[in-house]
Design goal:
The complex is a heterodimer of chains A (167) and B (148).
Chain A: H1 2-20, H2 23-39, H3 51-74, H4 101-110, H5 113-124, H6 129-136, H7 143-166
Helix pairs in contact in A: 1-2, 1-3, 2-3, 3-6, 4-7, 5-7
Chain B: H1 3-18, H2 24-36, H3 38-55, H4 64-103, H5 110-140
Helix pairs in contact in B: 1-2, 1-3, 2-3
Classes of the chains: A mainly alpha (167), B mainly alpha (148).
Chain lengths: 167, 148
């Protein structure tokens, strides 16, 4: 069991970091999630294919809980309804400049958390739509449309960042 | 169907096409449309490059020491839990033996036994009720993780 967790922990840590932005918080979430993984009654067998998405779901839920706690403390809004959610067709993004990974990381960090997590679960962690539906607890049929809207929103942010840089 | 409608219908499918999550029929429909429509073709190329770039985004790794600390914490947790189980089993066996010897001890009058049993029973009852209260408040206290 420890071996299985060791192999998943790096990826799960990155997911926590992508959601929380703070390595110390991500570390705490991982510690908590690992303790849950060994003691939870309904945990899938750690040898089965279901274990990885289940473990990522635990990590994701604990990260969201932690964000809510911090929000309660700092009275900041966890904004899921920014105007960028309305993004649709966007003008062309300067793809050459996409190589600037830092800019991409910053744009991802500026996305509302629901859009950021679905993009990263697919494009960074490489989960299938079925696994993403399981991790985010949403219907499998809505993964594609949510993912598409989120990618379009990311394009809008990237484009805005690039326009600001040109000025 | 007009070209505009066709594009808006295909647009969402482009993400599924990139991710390899479409049925064969849908996939074919997207491929045919992309071959004919420059706007959707460029949207497809953009999304594909964006996906590749996201895959390469650098994120910090967890340090090996921290990872080992988490895993050894887990082992420590397991040992702690097993130890508590052993202690509980030992105490239960001792308690059963003590009760058995106490009740079958003929040197003591029945009313002394009754009084001592009531005192012990009450004491244990109080202890369990406090323990239960503590347990419930620990589980439901939503502020317990808030740092002061």
């Amino acid at each position: 069991m420890n071996n299985v967790l060791a192999s998943l922990t790096q990826g799960a840590f990155k997911l926590a970091l992508q959601l929380l932005q703070e390595p110390a918080d991500a570390h705490d979430v991982l510690q908590d999630a690992a303790a849950t993984a060994i003691s939870h009654k309904n945990a899938p067998n750690h040898q089965s294919n279901d274990f990885k998405p289940w473990f990522f779901r635990v990590v994701r839920n604990k990260a969201i809980d932690r964000l809510r706690q911090k929000k309660r403390q700092s009275h900041e809004e966890l904004d899921d309804n920014s105007p960028l959610n309305e993004a649709n067709h966007s003008p062309e993004v300067d793809l050459e400049r996409l190589q600037q990974q830092q800019q991409l990381s910053l744009s991802l960090a500026r996305l509302p958390i629901k859009q950021r997590e679905i993009i990263l679960l697919k494009d960074y962690h490489g989960f299938s739509y079925k696994d993403i539906a399981e991790i985010l607890n949403i219907p499998k049929g809505s993964v594609m449309s949510q993912l598409h809207r989120s990618r379009q929103a990311l394009k809008v942010i990237l484009q805005a960042e690039q326009e600001r840089d040109y000025e | 169907m007009s070209k505009l409608n066709d594009c808006s219908h295909i647009e969402v499918l482009i993400s599924g096409y990139i991710d390899g999550e479409l049925t064969q029929q849908e996939s074919q429909k997207v491929a045919v449309h992309l071959a004919q429509c420059k706007v959707c073709q460029s949207s497809y190329q953009e999304l594909k490059k964006l996906q590749t770039a996201i895959g390469k985004t650098p994120y910090a790794q967890m340090e090996a020491e921290q990872l080992n600390a988490i895993l050894s914490d887990l082992t420590a947790n397991r040992v702690e839990r097993a130890s508590w189980i052993l202690i509980t089993i030992g105490l239960v066996i001792l308690l059963v033996f003590a009760i058995y010897h106490f009740w079958f001890d003929t040197s003591m009058a029945w009313y002394s036994k009754l009084a001592i049993s009531l005192l012990w029973g009450g004491g244990i009852g109080l202890f369990v009720s406090v323990l239960r209260q503590r347990w419930i408040s620990k589980k439901n206290d939503k502020y317990r993780k808030v740092e002061l």
